[in-house]
Write a structure and sequence with these properties.
This protein is mainly beta. Helix content is about 5%, strand content about 50%. The strands form 2 sheets. Strands 1, 2, 3 and 7 form a 4-stranded antiparallel β-sheet that branches. A hairpin with a 5-residue loop joins strand 2 and strand 3. The protein is globular, with a radius of gyration of 15 Å.
Amino acid sequence: MSLFESYFVGKITAVKKLMNGLGATANVVGEWTILWSFRDDFGVIQKVRVKAYHIPASKVRLFSPQFYFQQEGGGTFSMNVEGSIFPFARGGVFSFEYSGSMLPIAHASI
């Protein structure tokens, strides 16, 4: 999901739905394809296209591996004591270590 229209590519599909989570409800106003660019902890950049919701009230951008796996018909995301590994369905591997909060946080840019 993203709050900025400028991050989306292609044609919008108007959507009227509510998304619930993290103690709040947000209005979804559209669905587009978004091109994410991720930079892993080793400086490798991977690009991936995925459908995403436009949620203007959101304060964050969120990439959902689960939604990506559904779109691509499969995939894996694995974690161990050193960090996380996310091989993309169309090639390339994204590796990153844990943040100070011990959560796997990716560095994304559009």
